[in-house]
Amino acid sequence: MILKKTLVPLAALSLLGCATYNKNPVTTYESNEDASASKIAGGDNKTKNIIVLNSFKNQVNGNLSAKVEVQNSSSKPSIFLYKFDWINEDGSVENSPVWKNATINGKEIQTLTSIDPRGYAVDFRLLLKGI
């Protein structure tokens, strides 16, 4: 009986430690027609100092080219990962498996670029993840 009274609370406490926690949240931006970008998902605290200033897209040899200007609003350097996902004409999203590393010094502006490798995209999303 004493064993049962001890094990039940211990089992309950151990289950509390198994709660889901996203250790690597991602912030997602989508390009707009007016050369801006809107945050559509997420809110990674590690990339909160990265501000999207402008986004540009054009066709290069039949493939969509994406350029996004980002600025570090902090005075300290920021290190993060980024990738571009490509949106097809039917609205489906082609997830890029490759995350690229970037470092932006304090108050610096940097342009992140990529080209759709498949040639089907009509739009893109930028994903940022803190390290």
**Structure class:** mainly beta
Number of helices: 1
Residue windows where pLDDT falls under 50 for at least 5 positions: none
Query: Which percent range fits the helix content?
Result: 10-25%
- Rg for CA atoms: 20 Å
Outline type: globular
What is the CATH third-level topology name?
A: Immunoglobulin-like
CATH arch. level architecture? Sandwich
For the terminal residues, how far apart are their CA atoms?
Answer: 49 Å
- Compressed to H and E, one letter per element, the order equals HEEEEEEEEE
Number of strands: 9
What's the CATH C level? Mainly Beta
Question: What is the element layout, followed by pairings?
Answer:
Blueprint lengths: L1 H15 L9 E6 L5 E5 L8 E11 L2 E10 L5 E11 L4 E2 L5 E5 L4 E7 L5 E10 L1
Antiparallel strand pairs: 1-2, 1-9, 3-4, 4-8, 5-6, 5-7, 5-9
Task: Provide a compact summary of the structure.
11% of the residues lie in helices and 51% in strands. The chain is mainly β and 131 residues long.
